Amino acid sequence: MAFPAGSPVMTLFETTGHVLLRVTLGGGEVTVRPGDDGRVEVELVPLRDDDVTRRAIAEARVELTDRRDGHEVAVTLPRQTAFRGRRGARVGVTVRCPRGSDLALRTDSASLDATGPLGAVDVKTASGEVSLEDAASLAVETASGDVRVRDVTRTLDLRTASGDAAIRRCGGPLSAKLVSGNLSVGDAAAGVAVTTVSGDLRVEAAGGGAIRVQSVSGDVELAIKPGQRLYVDASSVSGTMSSELGLDQAPPAGSTEPVRELRVRTVSGDLKIVRAKAAGA
How far is it between the farthest Cα atoms of the chain? Predict the structure, then answer.
């Protein structure tokens, strides 16, 4: 379905079963608001009063297709980016969808603001910021956009060059690769695997799985949850190290509890390992 240029455009689909949202655009803002209605509502709004933005909306396509377990809604706008001083299109895309819908977003510089709960969320962007409340799983790949996440139930996979990331809670395995962006995590409930060059890493409560960190010059601060049985193996070439657990601590013998690995390698970044406060303390 293509649209004429002009004012905001609204499209409504009645859906059944599980919904997959595919959104593709160059620049602008993407807002996702899950609700209890069994339908998907898409609104396209020009964020800039110029020909390239109006043309992007006129050429946009919003399509519904059947899937074995439900429906797919695809929102596709031309990815017209800035070229030789010419500004690219800026379009606001607002999607209201059933709770638990999956989202796949591909964009050059558009930001994402999504409440929850959503299902599997997959985002690839060059410089757009990502703000997400709740999702079953999350995969983000960005060059310089910041990432803010409240809660992910299962796995979280993050790839960023220079954007900072803040994650309040991850209920499943958390993996991240960063170049110069900083990463802060509130609760990592099922292990952490982080590789960073110069960005700092701070985890306020880690446990429930192996903890593996490799860093070149970024500082690392890890707070370990009470009751964890860890084999600690940590080293640094020139950074300072301190640990309340000991830096070469073998787990106690004779216990049937699972032993998990805490392995940290840094070159010049400082390392600090502490015990996290008990819940409610």
Answer: 73
Q: What is the 3-state secondary structure (H, E, C) of 142-206?
A: ECCCCEEEEEECCCEEEEECCCCEEEEEECCCEEEEECCCCEEEEEECCCEEEEECCCCEEEEEE
Contact 107, 92 (CB under 8 A): no
Contacts of range 10-13, beta carbons closer than 8 Å, 24 or more positions apart: 10/41, 10/42, 10/43, 11/41, 11/42, 11/43, 11/62, 12/39, 12/40, 12/41, 12/42, 13/39, 13/40, 13/41, 13/42, 13/64, 13/71, 13/73
The pTM of this model reads 0.91
| pLDDT digit string, tens, across residues 74-87 | 999 987 655 555 67
159 CB-near residues (< 8 Å, 6+ apart): 140, 141, 142, 176, 177
| pLDDT tens figures, 5-58 | 456 899 999 999 999 999 999 999 999 999 998 999 999 999 998 889 999 999
Please state, in angstroms and rounded to a whole number, the distance separating the CA atoms of residues 28 and 22: 16
- CA end-to-end distance (rounded Å), the chain: 56
SS3 at position 79: coil
SS3 53: helix
Q: How far apart are CA 252 and CA 269, in angstroms?
A: 29
* Size of the chain in residues: 281
